[in-house]
Design goal:
The structure holds two protein chains of two kinds. Chain A is an alpha+beta fold. Chain A contains 18 helices and 15 strands. Chain A folds into three domains: 117 residues, NADH:ubiquinone oxidoreductase Nqo5 subunit (Beta Polymerase, domain 2, 2-Layer Sandwich); 67 residues, no CATH class; 292 residues, Cytochrome-c3 Hydrogenase, chain B (Orthogonal Bundle). Helices cover 70% and strands 0% of the residues of chain B. The two termini of chain B are 31 Å apart. The chains are: A alpha+beta, B mainly alpha.
């Protein structure tokens, strides 16, 4: 065995040598395992789990075949395609969250047809659905475990894979819609019956199917079925390029994965794209510090807007309409300011590759500061009303409880995680610019019920308002451009990562490019992937009528997960 | 009874029915306006319920494939029950044709009949929500009905009759007598009314969350004129309950003749009292959050206890007069 080079590092006492990935926005460590070395992967994952670290995401990639470069015509000549076909290769990618940074493990898989990878769900429960989705998209699935489709809804054939090279080479086909026969887990017993809810609901809300097994009002089991908002975003990315104005178009698409987290998504995507751009001329391309501060400002404003909407909606779900109207009013004022100053109510397309779309004038900064002070005052009053309302508190307290132990076991992350004592926040790690200079404070709550998630939101708004103040302070003393010029040439076959703490939790983007900066694979991961399965556990033992309140207190993303 | 008396009583009776049918949607609209104002929202037009009814009557009925004839008949039965109930409550005058038949117990029976049919219709199509709503409705019903009966009994003991006309007539003449028992009964009646009409804190009439619905869950499958009849019936129920509350606890101003002048005065009183009652309802709905489904038995149990207390207070303090 050879001694590893000096810049290589081992983690968790596992015999895998990781190399740091250059030019990333935060530390990323990469290791490519030997093909078929399932044991090394499983051992590493187990060690990470034992050390209390968590899976960020996993995805599969299939390359080669007749994958069309971005510049090629839409309709390749079949004979031509056959001539240029290269052997296909597949790989499993696992991203883990270690104290030292992000760890990216790659396991090459032997052959494409029928390729499988080891099942990680026994180690990380939330991996189960990621694996099912990976199979639906690429045809490479787990060797064991749950094999039901997740994203595929009988609207495309079981042997057609959206991200397979052959699919990407051909024009998009149309398939007849079929009725799906999906095997929900049945609960047997005296008096047990099922309540199917959705995907079309009585109100105008996002589509998701919930299958309750109940006895009377008591929920015994809940099973979710998502995927109705699958828009083929990963497939769309594979037809885009980072070259020239393509990067802006791709960032625009990333900002539409989930509209309520558009800043987080756009920022994460831009981090990944900028990491790739920086690899062509190290040190030659960097996002200006002022742009980073402005991005942080946008992200915190997005967080405040989302929390305001949730606090109102939580009141409304308990039929406390007064709360809804008050919080909607506050949010509306907040959004109008954003439309005035940043050009979009929800801040879409504010974050662009290389920086931000608009700079902030001193007058606008003063206006934002004043708005924060007004909001803080109003929130104080509303917080007191929510706290003192006996009827509302009766609905919130002890409802939908996720104990810290359960949260740790199932890997609850983001805002609901912090409300169950899971102290994870990317902003509070020392290695994600520009946060260390802003010194964000993490808020956690031990109770893990709906009331705790309400308090968590109040506390996080307070912290965001404080952060906005600090950002504005620093902006005043940070001169410079707010956008770097996008490079003309991009490296061939590079990887970039984006990882941003959105208001739901950490949003993750893994980007791989081929020749001329065309996107080979863009994997986007919403924090809700980890939290949806925990919601199923949070409802157990509650009554059916409390589900909407519990669901709203998590407020997980449909669009981000289905994408 | 002379022919003249018969004719005027019949006319008054018909007038009451027409007023109930015409004013009930307005009351619902008024409550919505008050609610919106109290929440600092832009209020919907008060006449919106009429437009909704008109819209629904014009629409086609869409029936589930497995809907039985019960499903189709239920809206008419429910509507008839509620129309009859609002007609026999002496709101304008106690001199009504149906007064001898307008018994408090018969009234509770009418409400129960409508409840049974709406619950059966909810279960008829076999959707999960219909059954869920029906189950919750029956839970509320079997707790609310005894409490409502006890409220009526308090008033009956005071007036020595279960006939609504007699009760109202007796109470209306006792302006200067204070009945502590009626205060208890009044609170109990308010609680029962909130539960029976599907208002906050028991049910939320404006919710879109199907899992929390009670009344709305049972009628999710209805459309067109069926839905219009059920919506109208719900307005009539609210109207009937409001009139009952007025008749039992604020009967002043009710005409005891059938003269046009007396009726006009009574009508003005009625509209004023209804407007005030609607505002109070909106206030209650704004100040409260909806309680957990399993808190409803406690809530209605309290209402029942208060109604029993009312009878005890009457027997102890008011000497059973």
């Amino acid at each position: 065995m050879t001694t590893p080079p000096t810049n290589r590092q081992r983690f968790l006492d596992q015999p895998i040598d990781f190399a740091p990935l250059p030019a990333q926005a935060f530390p990323v460590w990469h290791a490519e395992l030997a093909a078929g070395d399932d044991a090394a992967l499983l051992d590493f994952c187990r060690a990470a789990r034992t050390a209390g670290r968590w899976l960020v995401t996993l995805w599969t990639s299939v390359d080669g075949g007749s994958h069309r470069p971005a510049a090629a015509p839409l309709l390749p000549d079949p004979a031509d395609a056959a001539n240029t076909a290269t052997p296909q290769s597949a790989a499993l990618h696992v991203a883990l969250d270690l104290a030292e940074g992000l760890v990216w493990l790659m396991l090459p898989l032997p052959a494409l047809s029928g390729a499988t990878f080891p099942d990680l769900a026994p180690i990380f429960p939330s991996a189960a659905r990621l694996q099912r989705a990976a199979f639906d998209l690429t045809g490479v699935g787990p060797a064991s475990g749950d094999s039901r489709p997740w994203l595929r809804h009988a609207n495309w054939p079981a042997d057609w894979f959206p991200l397979a090279p052959d699919t990407l080479a051909a024009p998009a086909p149309r398939f007849a819609t079929h009725t799906e026969d999906y095997a929900f887990v049945r609960v047997e017993g005296e008096g047990v019956h099922e309540i199917p809810v959705g995907p079309i609901h009585a109100g105008v809300i996002e589509p998701g199917h919930f299958r309750f097994s109940v006895v009377g009002e008591l929920v015994l089991r809940l099973e979710e079925r998502l995927g109705w908002k699958h828009r083929g975003i990963a497939q769309r990315f594979a037809r885009l390029s980072l070259a020239g104005t393509g990067a802006t178009a791709a960032a625009k698409l990333a900002g539409r994965i989930a509209g309520d987290s558009t800043v987080a998504w756009a920022w994460a995507f831009c981090q990944a794209a900028e990491a790739i751009a920086a690899q062509v001329a190290p040190g030659g391309f960097a996002v200006p510090p002022r742009a980073l501060l402005l991005r942080a400002l946008l992200l915190e404003r997005e967080r405040v807007a989302a929390h305001l909407a949730d606090l109102g909606a939580l009141g409304n779900d308990a039929a406390f309409g007064f709360g809804l109207m008050e919080f909607l009013r506050l949010r509306e004022n907040w959004l109008r300011t954003q439309a005035d100053i940043f050009g979009h109510r929800l801040l879409m397309d504010g974050v662009v590759p290389g920086g931000v779309a608009r700079d902030l004038t001193a007058d606008d900064a003063a206006r934002l500061r004043a708005e924060c002070a007004t909001l803080a005052g109003e929130l104080l009053k509303l917080h007191a009303i929510y706290d003192d309302h006996a009827g509302l508190q009766d609905r919130l307290l002890t409802t939908g409880r996720v104990t810290p132990a359960l949260a740790a076991q199932l890997g609850l992350i983001g805002l609901p995680g912090r409300a169950s004592l899971q102290a994870r926040d990317l902003r509070c790690r020392g290695d994600h610019a520009p946060w260390p200079a802003l010194a964000p404070q993490m808020v956690v709550h031990p109770n893990g019920d709906v009331a705790a998630r309400v308090l968590q939101r109040f506390a996080e708004i307070d912290e965001s308002l404080r952060l906005i103040g600090r950002i504005l302070d620093q902006l005043a003393s940070t001169e410079g451009d707010c956008r770097a010029l996008w490079p003309e040439h991009l490296p061939t076959a590079a990887s970039g990562f984006g990882w941003v703490e959105g208001w739901r939790g950490d949003v993750f983007v893994a980007l791989a490019t081929g020749a001329d900066g065309h996107i080979r694979r863009c994997h986007t991961h919403d924090p809700s992937w980890h939290n949806w399965p925990v919601l199923e556990h949070a409802v157990i033992g509650n009554i059916v009528a409390d589900f909407p309140l519990i669901n709203k207190s998590f407020n997980l993303s449909y669009a981000g997960v289905d994408s | 009874m002379t022919i003249y008396a018969f004719a005027t009583q019949l006319l008054t009776q018909l007038l009451e029915l027409v007023i109930a049918l015409a004013l009930a949607p307005l009351l619902s609209g008024w409550v919505a306006v008050c609610r919106a104002r109290l929440q600092k929202r832009c209020p919907p037009p008060p006449l919106l319920p009429y437009h909704t009814l008109l819209k629904l009557f014009r629409k086609d009925v869409l029936l589930a494939h497995n809907a039985s004839s019960l499903f189709r008949v239920a809206p008419y039965i429910i509507f008839s029950c509620m129309a009859l109930a609002s007609a026999i409550v002496p709101t304008l005058s106690t001199e009504l044709l149906f007064a001898p038949a307008a018994d408090a117990i018969a009234l509770v029976g009418l409400f129960a009949l409508a409840r049974v049919f709406i619950a059966l219709a909810g279960m008829d199509v076999g959707t999960a929500f219909g059954s869920l709503g029906a189950r919750r409705e029956m839970l509320i019903g079997f707790l609310a009905e005894p409490a409502l009966l006890m409220v009526f009994f308090t008033a009956s003991i005071i007036s020595g009759s279960t006939s609504l006309a007699t009760i109202v007539g007796t109470l209306a003449h006792h302006e200067f007598v204070i009945y502590p028992s009626l205060a208890f009964a009044g609170v109990a009646f308010t609680m029962v009314s909130l539960a029976e009409n599907g208002r906050v804190p028991v049910d939320n009439p404006s919710t879109h969350l199907e899992l929390t619905m009670i009344h709305e869950a049972m009628i999710l499958e209805y459309s067109g004129r069926h839905l219009a009849l059920i919506e109208w019936a719900a307005s009539l129920k609210l109207f009937a309950y409001s009139c009952l509350g007025i008749a039992l606890f604020f009967p002043f101003g009710v005409a005891e003749s059938t003269g046009p002048g007396a009726l006009a005065v009574a009508g003005v009183f009625l509209v004023g009292k209804l407007a005030f009652g609607g505002f109070v309802l909106a206030l209650i709905e704004t100040l409260n959050a909806k309680m957990r489904v399993f808190r409803t038995p406690e809530f209605l149990g309290t209402a029942f206890l208060l109604a029993v207390l009312a009878i005890l207070v009457h027997l102890l303090l008011e000497g059973g007069r």
